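3.2 Worked example (two chains)
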Amino acid sequence: MSQKTPAILASVPLFSGLEPHDLDLLAGLALQKNYRKGEFIFSDGDPGDGFYIVAQGQVKIFKASAEGKEQILHVFGPGEPIGEVAVFAGIPFPASAAALAKSVLLFFPRDAFIRLIAKEPALAMKLLAVLSMRLKQFTVQVENLSLKEVPGRIASHLLFLAEEQSNRDRVTLTISKGQLASLLGTIPETLSRIQAKMAAEGLIRVSGREITLLDMDRIEALAENGKL
């Protein structure tokens, strides 16, 4: 445990509101792990022997087919937990995780953490809230991939970023075009083509990873009906 660990934990929504003493107890469990860009954190089917908090960097959660095709399920950044569902369900990890950039993670061994939350009901309730939010996000993603056409998926993602970044005028993509295409269940060429069409129709303006939202009403309508 580094001296910065309690400060990192205090900034994590899962642990917000805990007393300094409780944060110190948590910090005592944490093991700092460093990962290079592209390095695996865990693989689909590995034992769920602990969960992680992203301290620095970005981590993708993904499934890979037998042919090697990759579907990104989530991208998480600083302050977000990963692997917690498998840990508390007592099952293997149902997907793989890898670092999208040089990353620092805090690892919490399952058995020690469960003993701690048994003594701290408030922490268990916060964890339940986080898991509920994850379930909601996953449900929305399944709906987008299965029911919406690609333009609707892109529009829905822009609305998600606008809410997450608290900016209805402009959003910044936090992952590469290839990774975003995988997250949205399409290919980079299709993503570029639809973004260009949205720009031509006055919905957005694209400048690198920055996207200006020019017509929120029409973007919301596109997210709903899925067609340009």
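3.2.1 Second chain
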Amino acid sequence: MNNQNDVNDYISNFGTCEVINGTLSIRGDTAIDISGITAIKRIEGSLIIDSKMTSIANFSNLEFVGGDFEIDHNDVLETIEGINKLHTVNGNFLITRNYTSLKTITGFNSLEKIGGDFQITENHFLEMIAAFDNLITVGGRFLIRSADKLQRLNGFNALTKIGTGYKASSIKGTLSIVDNHTLIEINGFNSLIEIGLEMEVTNNRSLLRVKGFTNLEKVRSLTFMTNSLLVEIPLFNNLTTIDGALSINDSALVDINGFNTVQSLGWYLNFSQNSELVKITGFANLNKING
């Protein structure tokens, strides 16, 4: 559907249809009203919204997307809300490049599984993410980037695994929180057990504190880099294995501790350019560095 006439034709002919056997794509450079599309419960392909519209709350009955869920390039949508029955997205979940309007993401209360990537990126006016309370698995990459008005990132406390379905050489297994310039605090992810590749918290220039991650047991590499105001990181009291590197650079940390359950490192430790660092006390059980 590329314009309002296409939407109106769809409503006239298929307005009560609950199942889309292929992909539903709504694209266009002019404003489109899709409020009359309300019956859809299941989309076997992808849902792609790349158009100007002020609301997508009409997808309140949507339960399943077999491909990608994508909201992209919308410069009038301020709030994403009301999609509270969606439980599965087998492909990628993308809220991207809504540069000038998107402020709030709420809901998604039933969403448990994303088979591919989870990306909320290049939404420069995004202030709040109050959603995804029941998200359990992300098969690919987890990325929050360039949410330039976001001050606190909380929640995601049901999420247990990220990227564990991918080979270690794939970037798809990363948890990345990067380039969010007003972000002050990250607090959550308390059920997260395993990250397939890397956890990186990088270039968040206002970031003071990272809390949570209390049950993380395994990650290939762990990086905190260019967060120059950072004074607190998690204790990681259940982290036993870092198969790659541990890098904490350019922070305001006074003490690096909380790694007392880590027994082995795959590559190296790197604690450079931490101007306030006085002591390193958190590696009581580290007995092997392979690099």
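3.3 Remarks
Residues 4-14 form the longest helix (11 residues).
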